[in-house]
Amino acid sequence: MSLVLEKLMVTLPRADRPLFEVSLRVEPGQVASVMGPSGVGKSTLLDAVGGHLAPGFRCAGRVWLEGRDVTHLPAEARRIGLMFQEALLFPHLSVGDNLAFGLSPAVKGRAARRAAVATALERAGLAGMEGRDPATLSGGQRARAALMRTLLADPAALLLDEPFSRLDTGLRAEMRAFTFAHIAERGIPALMVTHDPEDATAAAGPVLRLSATGT
Amino acid sequence: MRLATLAALPLTLALASPALADWQATLDAAKGQTVYWNAWGGDDRTNAFIQWVGQETERLYGVKVELVKLTDTAEAVTRVIAEKAAGQDSGGSVDLIWINGPNFLAMKEQGLLHGPFTADLPNAKYVDLSGAAPAAVDFTVPVEGMESPWRLAKFVFVHDSARVAEPPRNMAAFVDWAAAHPGRMTHPDPSNFMGATFLKQALIELAPDPAVLQQPVTDATFEATTAPLWAWYDALRPNLWRGGATFPENQSVQQQLLNDGEVDIAMSFDPASTAAAIEQGLLPETARVFVPEGGTIGNVSFVAIPYNAAHAAGAEVVANFLLDPATQGHMQNIEVLGSFSVLDPAKLDDAGRAAFTALPTAPALPQLEDLGPTLLEPHASWMTRLTGEWARRYTK
Amino acid sequence: MSDGRGLRGLVLLIVGTGLLAPILAGLAETASAAFGHLPALGFDGWSLTAWHALAAEPGLATSLRLTLVTGLGATALSVVLAMGAVAALAGRVPAARGMRALAPFLAVPHAAMAIGLAFLLAPSGWIARGLAPLMGWALPPDLASVNDPWGLALILGLLVKEVPFLMLVTWSALGQIDAGRQMAAGRALGYAPAAIWAKVLLPQLWPLVRLPVAVALAYALSVVDMAIILGPSNPPVLAVALTRWFFDPDPARILPAAAGALVQAAIVALGLVLLWAAELLAHGLGRRWVRAGGRRAFGPGLAAVLVGGLLTLATLALLALAVWSLAWRWSFPQLLPESWSLKFWLASGRWGAALGMTLWLAMASAALSVALAILWLEAEDRGQRTRARWAEALIYLPLILPQIAFLYGLNVVALRAGLSGHPGAVIWAQAIFVFPYVMIALTAPWRALDPRLSRAAAALGAGPWRRLVRVKLPVLLRPILTAAAIGVAVSVAQYLPTLFLGAGRVTTLTTEAVTLSSSSDRRVVAVYASLQALVPFVAYALAALLPAWVHRNRRDLAGAVPA
């Protein structure tokens, strides 16, 4: 099921013109890239899609996901996962509890939930690290754990905010492949903000260029 | 235990006498009550005694006592007034007040007291409540059963005999003594009752006609009677501690000054307090009591019950327990409180008298005969005028 | 995302009814008594009786003068010393370590500190005992070194408490401006560090510390407990005189007391105007000084030495409390007690109830305040709005308004509602003063929390309450507990709210310590004051240890506050 942005416009507080107007369709398994100079509103676009806009930001147009109009739903009801530059695991929870926090409540029963977390960790090359303090993981481990946490929530779409920019070159390629493979396997649409043309090339999906005058 | 038997005595009597049948009703109503006893909390031994009273009344009558410590008795009076102001005419927060003098007068005049109740207390039979007996008038104001006596107070001075061999012999002599020992003597602030008593003690000695002090004050009598007092005080004040510009807040603070050696003379309303303080490590072993030749002011401390007290029955039970000979004997014990009894020795039976025999003694504890005659408190209106005038003259 | 309108409404309702309404109602009752309307005492209708009575009070002019001299003097000195000392120390001592060293002095309640200082400064105190052999004193000198008619001992007492407070505030404000690089830039231009402080950093710091200075000023102008213990007594400062009149046996004195309470409020207002005028004046003069281009300035070194002296006094004062609490006989001029005793500590039957009540009031008022602060901040988060100026003013209102101006009236209201004398009423009255400090302490760390944590949780399907409870609160555990500990310390220190609303039935360590400070037994007072000082210490220690233990296996949280 696809993610559709229909004449999506965001206007900043006290501004009279919208920052941008975007129409875009991202098919299941596809990764669309959003590129453009700093300050043009790339992250604001992700916020609008994910439901993280601050009040005062005016949003027009529509966001469709799996045929549902999610434009006015709160973030937690949209089923749109979010990946940041930094992995941003919750610092007070162990690695396993971070994943369990994400794990969809549809998975019931303590044993089943524990097994789901264990499987996800194994797939991320983190087998047996349930009890670890997230602060003790390496950058790559953290990024993989964060992706697993996001996927365990069973999202219908994924937003990636410069997900690989903090990783060094070798790790970046590996992580890119790991992330895109999972997106393809899940068959969900993804929207990625990036500065790195290699990201867009590897994603092989539609590319949206935001410019200061709007699209 | 003798105490228990004695305390149980009124109980047996109550069942026998029809007049005291009401008392049984009071006891029944009191059972399970907690009496909030508002009392000046500056004296530890008194606080401990009140706690003991609470333990005993709980054991004997099921009446608990909660001591509400006050910096000044007036706090409790204010509280009752505030409650009346707010229309709280029952269920008030104050059940029993340690009171006398102007505070009693103020509450009596404004109808803030419960009673008369004193004559109904079974143990009232041990007290002389007739005419002008010390327990029947409070600062010349007739008690009329609106408060019940519990301890005897007599004004005394305290000195450290190691530092002052010859204390002043009368109030007039304080001027010369202070001139010879500048900065070594003071008195509590007259806004405090002990400071006011110091002035009254001098007033009684210096007044041209002390008899007018027993009448309510008028402008004319005040002017004429206090003129010698102010002349005396003006001569004394420059040689007081800190030049007479600052005064200790109360007699406890002054006692501490005596203990520290900051002053040589302190004062108390309790002749036994010096011996007690020595035992507590609060005064040097050489501290002794002295009184001016003409005698000193004496009065009786009372307990009163506010008109809106939530636990008036319990408060009456406590007031009655305080008049029990066993209680009074315990109170007079120097190791407990050392306060002289308010009971009339002539009215005591053998068992009652036994409570007072063989009480321990101490070198700093004066005998009753050492304390000289007891002078009557002036009418309460004098104290108010006196302290007001003092504030006007010396608070700049 | 939910905009939290419902939550904001709830917070406004709680703050309005629980905090603002009582203050306004109390003020109204006080004002109505001040203008002669006190039907309960037979004063009906409006009159100026109260004002005439106030004017006739002996020593009123002296009281007013003392209030202004001690309040303004102590605050001006505190500001100068605190700023100077931070200027001298900031480059040399790491901020975190400096602030940690100051915290204990902040934790000690005013009454306990005042009692300790009195033990130290009195003519028979520790200092005089130390000097006795040199001066040949066999008896204490007849010097008014406490309760002096000029209020110097009171000023010193206020300094000991306010300087650490203002230093802490200044030091943490320093972290918000880029002090290090500005200092480097200034020195490269040939300016001495003290001159850079005065000309460059101070003007930037001032807006950040202005409100805390105003709080300190309002406090110094209306302090009661410390003024009872250290201040002049004949006559005392206005706030103490008012407290005496409110509790006078002659009920008619409530009238001048109520009028005086309004005067007290006016004095604080005057103090704030003077503060503002001083700021304008300093601004004008400072500009001229900056343009003159002088490279030198002096003072910080001296200020640091003086502050060192103050903190030494404070430490000795606390030590004096401990020694007195263990003494049996300790006569002048002995430096240490002649005999020792544990009797007063062992007599827990005497202080146990007061300690229990103190803990209960402190925990309840701190918990209520923390809960309300969390709701307030969460409501701000959900609305993602900055705090309106009126809301900020509302938080500071109870700290600026003199307590005596509305506590009498508040108690009249409580009496009508049948609440006076109930611990609940005291908890409520204390929370009015605890909440602002908790709110101020929690706001900065709350806002510093990475907002993406909450977004990440939302993207994982967590609703607003789950985000609050599962993510924000655990991550903010340390600052929340610190705020709670501050709340406990503030509650323990409260004197007037307990006195007025407790109707004498609610005794705490503080009311006992202040009452006993005018008794004859320093040893008992010392036990109460030591306990009073210990409770906040324990609260701070728990606030530091508990999160460290809970997060012992979480490297990012075990250390400092998460940024």
From TrEMBL, chain A:
Task: Print the keywords alphabetically.
Answer: ATP-binding, Nucleotide-binding, Transport
Which intervals hold domain ABC transporter? 3-215
Q: Which SMART domains match?
A: AAA (SM00382)
Q: Pfam families this protein is in?
A: ABC_tran (PF00005)
**Alphabetized GO MF terms:** ATP binding; ATP hydrolysis activity
Q: What is this protein called?
A: Putative thiamine transport system ATP-binding protein
Automatic annotation (TrEMBL), chain B:
UniProt KW DNA-binding keyword: no
Provide the alphabetized UniProt keywords.
Signal
Which SUPFAM superfamilies did the record assign? Answer: Periplasmic binding protein-like II
Q: Where is the signal peptide?
A: 1-21
UniProt feature coiled coil, ranges: none
**What is one Pfam family matched by this protein?**
SBP_bac_8
Source organism, top-level taxon = Bacteria
Which segments cross the bilayer? none
Please verify whether the record's keywords include Signal. yes
Record-linked InterPro entries? SBP, YnjB
PANTHER family attached here? Answer: PROTEIN YNJB
Protein name as catalogued:
Putative thiamine transport system substrate-binding protein
Question: Whose protein is this, by species?
Answer: Gemmobacter caeni
Automatic annotation (TrEMBL), chain C:
- Keyword flag NAD: no
Topology of this chain in the membrane: Multi-pass membrane protein
A GO CC term attached to the entry: plasma membrane
Residue ranges annotated for the ABC transmembrane type-1 domain, each copy included: 64-276, 355-543
What are the subcellular locations of this protein?
Cell membrane
Q: Which Pfam families match?
A: BPD_transp_1 (PF00528)
Provide this UniProt record's keywords sorted from A to Z: Cell membrane, Membrane, Transmembrane, Transmembrane helix, Transport
Note the InterPro entries from the entry.
MetI-like (IPR000515), MetI-like_sf (IPR035906)
Spans traversing the lipid bilayer: 68-90, 102-129, 149-174, 208-230, 254-277, 298-331, 351-377, 393-415, 427-446, 475-496, 525-546
Q: Which PROSITE patterns match?
A: ABC_TM1 (PS50928)
Biological processes annotated in GO: transmembrane transport
Grouped into one coarse class, the protein's main location is: membrane
UniProt family annotation: Belongs to the binding-protein-dependent transport system permease family.
> What protein name is recorded for this chain?
Putative thiamine transport system permease protein
